[in-house]
Request: fold
Amino acid sequence: MADSPIAVEHHNPALKHHFANMEQQREASSLGMWLFLATEIMFFGGMFCAYLIYRYWYFPDFAAASKSLDITLGAVNTAVLICSSLTVVMAVRAAQLGKRQEQVVYLALTLVLGLAFLGIKGVEWTSKFKEHHIPGPTFNFEGSVPGHPDQPVDQHHAQLFFSLYFAMTGMHALHMIIGVGIFSYLLYHAWKGKYTPEYHTPLENSGLYWHFVDIVWIYLFPLLYLIDRKK
Amino acid sequence: MFDTFPLWPARASTTAGSVDALFIFLVALSALVSVAIFTMIVVFAARYRRRRGVVAEPIEGSTALEVTWSVIPLCIFVMIFVWGAVIYFKERTPPRGATEVYVVAKQWMWKLQHEEGQREINELHVPVGRDVKMILTSQDVIHSFFVPAFRIKQDVLPGRYTTAWFHPTKAGIYHLFCAEYCGSQHSGMIGQVVVLEPAQYQAWLSGGGAAGSMASNGQNIFQQLGCSTCHRSDTQGRGPNLVGLFGKPVQLEDGRVVTADENYIRESILNPGAKIVRGFKPIMPVFQGLVSEEQLNLLVAYLKSLSPSPSGAAGGPTVVPSGAKPQETKVQ
Amino acid sequence: MATAALTAERENYLNQEYGIKSWLLTVDHKRIALLYLLSITFFFFIGGFFALLIRLELLTPAGDLVQADTYNKLFTMHGQVMVFFFLIPSIPAVLGNFLVPLMIGAKDLAFPRINLLSWYLYIIAGVLMLHCMLTGGVDTGWTFYTPFSTAFSNTKVIEAGLAIFISGFSSILTGLNFVVTIHRMRAPGMTWNRLPLFIWAHYATSIIQLLGTPVIAVTLVLVVLERALHLGIFDPTRGGDPLLFQHLFWFYSHPAVYIMILPAMGVVTEIVPCFARKRIFGYQFVAMSSIGIAVLGFLVWAHHMFVAGISLYAALIFSALSYLVAVPSAIKVFNWTATMYKGSITFSTPMLYAFGFVGLFTMGGLTGLFLAALGIDVHVTDTYFVIAHFHYIMVGGAVMGYLGGMHFWWPKISGRMYPESLGRLAALIVFLGFNLTFFPQFILGYLGMPRRYWQYPPEFQVLNVLSTAGSTILAVGYLLPMVYFLWSMRYGKVAPDNPWGASGLEWMTPSPPPTFNFDAPPVVDWEAYDYEHIPAPQEARSGG
Reply:
């Protein structure tokens, strides 16, 4: 019995008892991950909605506050994340082809890029802290509305911008930290050789998650950093 | 003054009648539908209860029936919607020339001021037969101005004005409730609306010790705060001329056009940078935190009095010389 | 009875393993359902206790039983416990958890460990909520309106917010598990059009849980951050907008009403055909109306805000959309009624609850038409009319459905029959107590008694006394089933596999089911509710 190919399929150690076969199990996990990402979209959606409303109401102040963000670091971080999505895809590809060595390398690269993102973000936040741009009693934003050098920025509205900036990038960073945790776990198991061409669903699904977090940033970057740079 | 066991609220405004009409219609409709459904259930339950040798008839459904009982309710719903919307539209559109009362809500009290200058706490005196417009704002949390006898309710928000209006039809004393939960003494934030016959109202009005109308007091503040140095009634001021401003469209620096309503005036005093009038520099200082809600109301009333249009304070004084006595207005 | 004795001795999910560990670490959906049953019953009685205190306080116009602040905490925590810790998990997490895999012929939910995780999240949230209650409680109302909650209340808003945030994840994970299971785990032959309508209702519910809950989650995060770090997003003194909070809150909390009522509709849709011995009338319409409610339910949230300061035109649009969502609900009521036509009806306890449900839900739905009518809403919103309306839906609807379902599937869950005559008596008491409690509140509301009032003008007293009297009767009606369900676990008659002669895969496996649900994987080649092919229950039960 154990020699027949069907029996091998049935006894794949990764197959959970309540699934009929590996395909059903894979499809279920994949659908589950897509649904989870839908909930994530709604989660970030709430904050995007708040952001868009205030940006519409207080556009000049938001533009001024946005100008104080470091566009170079933001752009570098965007590039870092896009590269990390590429390495994730390469890691999944390596798993599909059964190349364990490559898998481990790409996963490690993803981790490094993820940590680099968080590091750069940390640098940005630190400088904001030094500039007193953290919402609260010590908040202070100097400057004038772009295009109107004689109109000072409204402190409250600038503070709202930074409230949303920290809430959104903070939530995003939290997702990145969780992602780094997940990918450390994957790296360990990939190194142990757990993911094979037949079974690499965790890799695929974690990849989906990573791409999602990446896409959120791709929206955050222009919304927060590039409001009105021309003037 | 109140029944001990009423089953229907007092009906003391023009709105109350129209709300009651729709309500009674809906009660009748609901009774009809419920009775129809309950009768069917009871009849089916009795008629088709299990009997030996009788089996249920397999019936799959009927598209015709489904469409019927979707479309007919939908038509009725559309009718109710339109009926309700018409009433609401009237409730939300204060008539021109209404007497204005400014209301400031705070935890846990209502502070009201009449155009003529009378101040009241937790009590509002109004005459029968005149439109009254409430301009409401809150000092702290959200409250809600609710007079069941008038069937009106309007949330009172901090940081902006909301409005409500009513037209009392019957003299009496009616409850004023706070309907939006606002903290410990929410249920203590109640008062009364006293609707008086015009003559009595006149007597009440002259009996109160009001020191000048809202507009004239507003004018004093306008001068004390130095507003008048820039906002002059000619074209030479560094700020826009405010005479005749209220109710008019205003061209802004960024191209937008807004109407100069109560909320616009409020924002332009507290936070002038938000909407810069075209052709003027953003030089006005911020008054957020420097004027109280009551002072703000006085300023708004004063600015409105500079606009002798029917949408302004028709019943009240127009441009009032400073220190003038409250003008008596004839009650209809 | 030989077969019954045999059933009792078989290995099933209850007796396969013993010990506390076998329960706390179980990944069996049926055991997790029972874990949920215990926990939500606990919270139901806590929430009910608060409700009784509220009703006792309102017995007299003066605030004399408890302090104003205590009263405010009571109604706040009554709402939070009942909504987030009882109603939302009630039918989905107990009956849904137990039945979804059984009804579609699966061995378990798609993600059993996530299912257990969602129970643990619920427990963490529940413990946090209890801790919050015991160390001072919270007084914002279950609606957390800003700026009161963010800047004025000095109670434990952050803790309560976090508790509800965590319970939200429990709810999301349950919904996610259901959707994946219904999509991917159906037995061969179990097509979408053969699914029991209970499954359709849960599918619709799960969609709302997935798409709505994250929004309340992020909203509560913002409230917590605003309170802790003074962000100012909802603070009007710093440029924020308190109405934005209300929009975000109701974007979830209105659909949440459908999370609570749709599963109950699913239960009733199983019960009515069974006791009328007939196919459901208009299967497709009932299924699609569930989906319709779920979709339209996302488009009506601002009808909670007609007097809140939204624009006139926004109010018109949301009023019109609210009437649209009433249509699918009406369709369901008509179909349940039509199902009884030319049936062969018996009146067991579940059917009595189903009758109660249809009656009370109809009244709750009709009074919803009043509230959606703009002109009337202005007068009755934030009064006892609203309280009465949503209790007709939530208690008259959802709780009646939940109790009906518990009686219907109790033989399957426990392997024992509950005492039938006591069951009928309890159903009657609940129905009468309910109406006495909540009907007077419609009148109170139209008279103008505002909600959340600790003291009230004396002319409202008579109706309040009636309501309080009703609530004590209702309490008896709720205690009774708990007592006899417990009693029946030991002394009840052993239940046959299919005591009601009901259709559906869950009745084709032993009572209680084995751990993996079916001895052999089922293959479905029949339509749903094919009652003409199922014999009525063989033995007439002595109690009935």
